[in-house]
Amino acid sequence: MNAFIEAVRVAGTPQGPAPVVLLGAEGTVDVLPIVIGFDEAASIARGLDAIDIGRPLTHDLLLDVVEELGGRVDRVHVSEVRDETYIADLYLNTPRNDVIVDARPSDALALAARTDCPITVDETVFEDGGEPLDRFDDLDDIREVVQ
């Protein structure tokens, strides 16, 4: 399924606040919530907002390295759930060949936010984990929590 980053919010959980990235998909009003870390959530938001802080942070650095070596991020694919953990693949075009790199969804989405590359989600993964978007309306945007 073709997907996009709908929002990055912060949910309250019994263990405390937890950032969640909401992936929307074409043809549905549901979203796929993926719980991620605060640093990755802030990085995704910075990528979406195209904020340059002067020095590269981790995801900016990784993208710089890929591009300096002649590669580019082709797409991000959330492929499965394994032991309650989402699995993503980062598709890269490189001068030698195209490669698929195993990645955490949060890291892959932080790169997608910086490159505007396509994001896809396995249909079964979305169907199994999808929830109505309005369930997340009361959650704070990550930008309001992390400054």
UniProtKB/TrEMBL annotation:
Protein name: Bifunctional nuclease family protein
Domain BFN span(s) in chain numbering: 1-133
InterPro entries with a match to the protein in the record: BFN_sf, Bi_nuclease_dom
Name of a matching Pfam family: BFN_dom
Organism: Halomarina halobia
